[in-house]
Fold these 4 entries.
Entry 1:
Amino acid sequence: QQQQQQQIAALIQRLNDKFGGQSVLLVAQEHVLQAVRSAFSPSIESASSPTSFALACVHPTTDVWDAPSHSVASRSVGMWGRALKWCSRIGTTPNMHRLITIGASHFCEKARWALDLSGAHYLEEAHPPGLHSLSSKMATGGMTSMTPVLCTPDGNVLWESTEILLHLQRTYPALQLFPENLRDEVEGWMDYFDSVLGPSARVCAYHFLLASTKISIPVFHAGCTSSVQKKLSAAAAAKIGDAIKKGFHITEDTAQQAIDVCAEVFSRVSERLLAAGNDNPTPYLCGNTFTAADLTFAALAYPVVYAQTPVPGMPALDGLPEPYLVVVRKMRATRAGQHVLDMYSRHRAA
């Protein structure tokens, strides 16, 4: 076990040397990978080599524990670069988009929702937090470790959820998420939600969800199909949670500030919807149709309204901690909160 720990430490150092010292995300890559490494336990000791550990971090659509013996998964640490290359090809399908996500992420839900509306064929690769970064860096040539990342069938790679929506609108004009006569207004709302609501809703949700591994582990595993990655994140759940709190500066004070910011955004959206309601009984944020502004608001607000997303494995509403439920009930009671639930009911397929 000690020798294996040393091999993993050497591998992680090589990965950091290759891909850069820290993740582009606020959570430093070294913190989360260190948390996984330090929590490495006999329950996942069946990995044949540290290279298998790297493959598990990179690609969730196959269990490398079961990789054939002749594959690079069974070779030495010195083969890690070729192993990562091999792994990036697993599970890809011609003529399909590839969406790299953290399953529970609201920014990933924004991209996922737009993909579902577009009718595009896509394969989602959902990772637990921390285990996503290598896939993102590989797909983007080291440009980012963030999610979502969309790899298109023609070889383009996009990251940042708004860029993905704009790409889908260009590729699938029937979407009509950015009506020409409303485009500036739609993009203005989107910028506001991306920069203000998104980060605040994330801090708020993580503050409550990381309080107990009984809650955090199902959230980490949401949408993930790899038993390997689930074992890794479960073994390291407490330490990954600590790394997330450190990376996003989550404390009691910052969580309360985030809740206040979300309430302010909801107040502004409620005022807009109530004003629009004078001549439209079911108003949208821009004009009389569902646009990217409504989609972005609903997706980024889902952590504080706890709308029903199609991501499998998320905890049920009645399974949330009571302090979290207090916030959810307060947000749902607003006109903006009702708008989120309405958009999910009418425009989000299960």
Entry 2:
Amino acid sequence: MYNQYRPPTGGFGGPPPPPFGGPPAPAYGQFGGAPPGPAFGGGGPSSHGGAGRDANDDKLSKVKDPLLTAVRWLKGRSPQEKLVLGCLAGVVVLLILWRTIEDHDTLFVLAEVAHFVGIGLLAFKMYSKRSAAGLSAQTQILTTIFLIIRLYCSFMMEYDIHTILDGMTLLATVGVLYALWFTPIKATYQADLDNVKFYYVVIPCVVMAAIAHPFTSHWIIFRVLWAVCVYLEAVSVFPQLRMMQNSKVVERFTAHYVFCLGLSRFFSCAHWILQLLEGNRYLLNALGSGLWPVMVLLSEIVQTAILADFCFYYVKSYAQGSGIVRLPAGIV
């Protein structure tokens, strides 16, 4: 057994001794014997990196990675081509959702799940890294306000799975605010960059809700509050985007959070688009029935436009392989 692991040469690099006193084995280089391999894995074929291994490496290096090939191809497209490709990808996803999801209200559930995941990423980042860098407290305050209003209206007007998901998201948001205000993490909060105060957003939304609100059989206070909730949700991310633009470079977990908000908005818009594809004429008729449906549609468009630009730069940064989101001036 030991002989199986002995080197093939004898002492001082010579041939192995003959067994049982037989004739000596031919020396390397004589009578066609094989030349000795170079010492310490040199240029000859050896298990430590010779020509055989180089040949194999050359073969492996020629194998194309489809994902890398696609990314390189995408990077070579012009901005107009990338925009068209992005729109086509969105249409394809919509068609897949249309053919696979029977109950379109499921899209609203997915939207709320995406929002909760985004808040969860923020909380994970804060408590694991002990840092609130790049996080807007003003956006979290606005999120807390509209979630409280929506939960209150849900308890008074309806109660379903959306109420539970909103409650979970509210708890996560309150946890983020608690860490920002009452833990040592608050020392890392960049208050100088978070310069869009929440009341600058709340007051116009309240005024708009008093003017345009749903006309249903519920009490007027519930209808106005519901309108405030819709308007606040549409612009609640504005302070966060402004803060990220002030800092130029977006912190990774904060970028994931905002992208989740954009994903939530995509699912919400997909719900309404699929309703139209199914031939639901009620939505089209509602637009001509007063100011409130028009304001709801406008809120959807505003929120989608605010988040679409960020999601474009988010996807672009990862397509380029950097993973660092840089926002140009004028995005918000």
Entry 3:
Amino acid sequence: GKLAAFLFSFCTVFLIKPASMSVVALVFGEYFSHLTLGHASNLWFSKGVGALLIVVLGIFNVVGVQAITKLLSLASVLKLAVVGFLISCGITVLIKGQGEIGNFQPPLSFEGSSTNPADYGLAFYYCLFTFQSWNSLNYMTEELKTPEKTLPIGGLVGMVAVAVSYFLCNLAYLTMFSLHHIVDTKTIAMDSGFIAFGRAGEIIMTLGLLVSCLGCVGGSICCISRNLQCTADSGVFPTCMGGISKRFQTPVRAIIIECTTMCLYMLFDANALIPFLSTVEWLFYCVTFSVILYLRYKHPDTHRPFKVPIFISVILFLITGTFVILPLFSQSSRMPTILGLM
């Protein structure tokens, strides 16, 4: 119904997507400040750089999508290049005989681990935050010739590729650094390039990651603003938020609103934003899987172009429900989680 559409659209365009992109913009700012200022960098300078990135990419989105399209293509290639370079850093450190092999020995690997299960739920929030782009595939359904075939294949191939890439990246981190260094540093990728290839490796890794963040934020502004424009034009939001500019043929008002929202989220701590937006996001996932179960029971004979096996829906319903509830029992994420549920 309209209420459900309003709640999901509101959370998507004003909470989940802008908050997540503000975190990515902050990562851009932190790496840029460390590259240019070194140890003299500070948090507010990083946030200022991140906010400036959002404004510049917003202007690019207003002017037209061709530049953003080219940027996204370049960013996609560089993301894979960064992953490959990071893995090569780990291999280089091993060849030099400088690897932290002790990280793979069980007594050291689990030293200082939490005994609170809720903390592991919070850890999953941070891990799954990097996987959230899979749900963007659904926005392309109308433009696919055979979505019942292409969509599942694209999702599976993409998720497997991302999972393998991230596994190898974390393996490289554990090979190069102590557990304490991994926890304390904010620029782990930059440190990887430096320890393997010196200052040149540090610069290469940082530039690749900056372009990757730039493409991620630019593409998200493009998608989220059109989401807001469509929902405003359909009456879910005030019509003043929608419309297409006659001069630029882009949703200028929606772009301005989304960029402003992202910049406002830059004022908050990223460690609070991730549990907050993840709670909202996984709550909707849980509701989605519960609706699938309900419709399978209520309308079993309805034609479905793509039919998910029922046991998968049951398992994912239980998992997503656990992800929503478990962080409530973690001291460090209780308040952001409660705010997300509200």
Entry 4:
Amino acid sequence: MAASNDSTPNDAFLADLFRRVDKNDDGHLSLLEFRQYFRDGVMSSEELVDLFSEIDMDKNGTIEISELQTLFTKNIGSFSEGFEALARINDAITSILRTLPATQQDVVDEKEMFFKRFFLNELTSSVKSLQHPLDAAAQGLTDEALTRRHHTVFPEQSVIHGDRDDSTTNAPATGGGGQAKHPTPSSYHMGTLQAEVARLAKIADRLSGKVNQGTMEKDTGVPHAVLVKFDMSVLADATETFHNALKQYLSAVGHADGCLRSNVVYDDEDVTLYEVWESQAVLDGHMRTETYRSFQKSNVDTLAVPLKYQSMTTPASWWM
């Protein structure tokens, strides 16, 4: 869809959103595409079908971009200012990047390059700092919605696959017919990240034959590890490709220096990957490796929605 001269940042955002949801690029959103992209762990399938029907104003069974824009523009509210600001920031960053030398041979003034590096790092830190309050607000809204709906987490009934010391359990379980069968937790909603940390700690204790000694004592000298959570929703027709890539990634991660645990939870097409790393520095190094980058590239074609990433520090003693 070509943008008109009087298009707004909201129009650009909604056009990009439509493109991301429209997986087969046919210019229409099917119910399957809509449900795969907009399911958020709170809305039920029936509620998503009702929302799809509300947006599909001509009732032809698909959503056109004009229909999506009508309802989303009506509900965007104060978020409109945020997307307008992001559009300006994107333009500013693009202009900044164009001023950077393409190669090291293009560097003329070392002092000038020092300031470019300094301001670029400061800008990067400032942009990253914007994410934390947004993540907290989004998590708070999700937790509140789940509480209202009276969803309960049952840690002992969730099935965990994989451990860095046993790569054979990283692959999905298979039945007699050879097709992958993913164990389904009794509750799809995993609750807050803090609750998942407690659950993973209990599982790790059982795996290593330890007994959880209860709450940790506050000690500034206690080393901390980093727990990382990746939420992935796999396209129905890309499960084999995804799981092959996941198996290769887990095999590499299982032997990576500094990786204390790697566990996978399967729930139909929804896959949650947990990793525990010795420190943030080790995790940052891992994310620069070809192993990590290759796995992320493969996810572009196999995930229904962009991967969701969360991390937090935990006592290192939980995983030793």
